[in-house]
Amino acid sequence: MLQLIGDDKELADILHRSLATGSAYANELRLAPTEVHADERLVDCRVSQMQQPDADASLLVEMTDVTRRTRISKENALIIQHGAGRQMIRQLAHEIKNPLGGLRGAAQLLERQLDRDELKEYTSVIISEADRLAALVDTLLGPGGPPNKRPVNIHELLEYVARVVEPDLGERLTIIRDYDPGLPLFSLDSDQMVQAFLNLVQNAARALEGHGTITLRTRAEINFTIGDTRHRVVASIEIEDDGPGIPVELQDSIFYPLVTSRTDGTGLGLPVAQELISRHGGLIEFESRPGCTGFQVRIPLLDNDEQTNDE
After folding, report:
1. Does domain 150-310 have CATH number 3.30.565.10?
2. Which long-range contacts (CB under 8 A, 24 or more apart) does 300-307 make?
3. pTM score over 0.85
4. Which of 175, 180, 298 is nearest to 242 (CA)?
5. Quick one: pLDDT band at residue 309, thresholds 50, 70, 90?
6. Where are the domains of the chain?
């Protein structure tokens, strides 16, 4: 039986303990990919001993695959987090933007009253800092307007992003392409998608600190659920790095604005990327452990009306 699930060491230990002690066990196990199952699975496992007359003790092993249920729960949590974060940053941005306009205007009026250049330098600093903060607020509010969709090749967008970031990567950091050539053209806003992918790839590059590998991977997923909607087919775009991973204490909040583990980070890249993908009916998920962090961008290949007509 262990061969069927890849000789999982944790399950083997549970079986041996149950045989030795007669105790029942209930555990949630994460089973690694095997030749039969290409993907990692999460299962509820219950093990109990069965004593049969005139026979050695035997075990009853019950397994329930909860991978899909767990993933849907995680997706719903991400959607709730994104909605709360978006509302919070919009309120914060509006509260900041109005005083900034007054501050900049007052500095300009004051500058006209000054006759010494060294004093005007101070008002110039006030004006430039007000402009910098206004730009940050605009980033918080995110790119405006609905997506301007047109049929595009997702791989062309990824290659454009790779060309943008590669000059800054250095010789010890490489990008690997693992593309599915069967993905068709589908309707996207190119500018918004490039910005979302750029944020994710730049985050991966910063996590690697100049040494490691970033993998760009594309696949098609069949009968995939995003939130409450089941899609016949979605495009899955993964940005994976082999860096140290996201700190455990940040993993439940990384899509909230201003959450970052870097001293020089703004904490806006992931929330903005999630916002841009959500405008296309999609979602960004992630898995992270030391040595492997992957952000999966899931986008429906068909619009809702196309999908309804097709079904």
Report:
1. yes
2. 300/226, 300/231, 300/233, 300/234, 300/235, 301/183, 301/184, 301/186, 301/220, 301/231, 301/233, 301/234, 301/235, 302/186, 302/231, 302/232, 302/233, 303/187, 304/229, 307/231, 307/232
3. no
4. 175
5. very low
6. 2-65, 70-141, 150-310
